[in-house]
Every structure is written in C-alpha cells, then in structure tokens.
Design the sequence.
C-alpha cells in the first residue's frame, strides 16, 4: 500500500509541474528529479495526497534562510506570532547569534488533526527537498517523532540528545544533527529548557569549529 501511495504521489507531482502522460508510465520514477523542481513551493501548496489536506486551513512552507547554516525542524508547522515562533526566534538570536535561519516542518498542513505515520511518510519528501536545496551545517530536530523519521531510529529523545549525530537516512547525504525536545514540550515543561539549552550550546560549539 505504501509503495502505491508513493508512486501516486510522484505521478501527481509530475502532473502538477506540467507533465502529460501520452505514453506508458515509467514505473521506476526518479523522485529526486521531481523534488528539485523550481515548482516545489507550488507543489506543496497544492498537495492533496492525504486526508490532512481536507482539514487543513493552509499549507505552511516554512522559513528559508538560505544564507544561514542552521535548519530547525519541527513536526507541525510553526505559525506566525505563535509562542513557538517566538521561542525559535529567541533560540536563534540569543544562543546562535543569528537573525537568519531556516525553519521547516515535517507536516506542511496547518491542521489540528492527529498526525499519523502514514501522513509523515507522504509528506517528508517535501522536507527532504527543502533541506537539499540549502546544504546546512547543522539540522536541529525538535522531538522524538521527528528524530525517528529523519534518523530512522527507535531511540528515545533522552538517548539521542546531548551530542552531534551523523546520518544520511533521509537526505541521502551525510548531515550533522542535534536532537532536542519537541517545541510543545519546551513550552509546557519549563524544566526541560535547561536541557535543551545544553543541546543548543553543543550545536553552537560545533558550528564554531566548522
């Protein structure tokens, strides 16, 4: 079922960027050629590949700070003027001394619906393409679910945080990651903030020697 869904996704995106099917469809489609298209933003905004799009108010593309080497990744979109956005801005400015950074979510739909693995499987190729276009120095993952899907690990966040992790499972290129607690957990549990601060300091130290 998953293979069929991914194939449908690729065919749908090819149609969105203008391809027409006049011949037999190549069942071995190369997804990299699709997602590096200049029409990526358009494709994301018009995606209807899962049921989340039915309850979504809009698609959130995220923030592309191309000149920054830092990418923050959350599970759900970060809305403008929200407490989550304020927290990430403060992290970037007060810890990393950066006004420019990139912020993307695994799920692009702005919805209150529950997020299931099937939604992430469909949506995470968009995230991969967004990050591929930037080539960041460090990627900061907020939360266990994000880490599980990007790093392909079942480890708990407590066992992943506190060190630089190298992986190429999602991006097909080796990248450097820091895992910390989910944004919502940091907002609801102030006791986690000092631990997350330690994670960010490790990331900052890593950037200083790059």
Sequence:
């Amino acid at each position: 079922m998953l293979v069929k869904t991914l194939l449908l996704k690729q065919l749908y995106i090819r149609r969105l960027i203008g391809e027409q099917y006049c011949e037999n469809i190549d069942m071995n489609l190369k997804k990299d050629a699709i997602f590096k298209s200049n029409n990526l933003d358009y494709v994301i905004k018009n995606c209807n590949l899962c049921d989340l799009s039915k309850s979504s108010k809009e698609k959130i593309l995220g923030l592309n700070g191309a000149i920054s080497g830092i990418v923050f990744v959350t599970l759900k979109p970060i809305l403008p003027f929200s407490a989550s956005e304020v927290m990430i801005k403060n992290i970037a400015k007060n810890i990393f001394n950066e006004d420019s950074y990139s912020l993307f979510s695994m799920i692009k739909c702005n919805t209150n619906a529950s997020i299931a693995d099937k939604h992430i499987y469909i949506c995470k190729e968009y995230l991969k393409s967004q990050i591929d276009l930037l080539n960041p120095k460090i990627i900061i993952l907020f939360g266990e679910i994000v880490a599980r899907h990007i790093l392909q690990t079942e480890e708990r966040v407590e066992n992943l945080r506190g060190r630089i992790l190298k992986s190429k499972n999602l991006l097909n290129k080796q990248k450097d990651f820091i895992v910390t607690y989910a944004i919502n957990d940091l907002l609801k549990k102030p006791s986690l903030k000092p631990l997350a601060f330690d994670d960010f300091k490790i990331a900052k130290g890593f950037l200083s020697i790059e």
About this structure: The two ends are 43 Å apart (CA to CA).
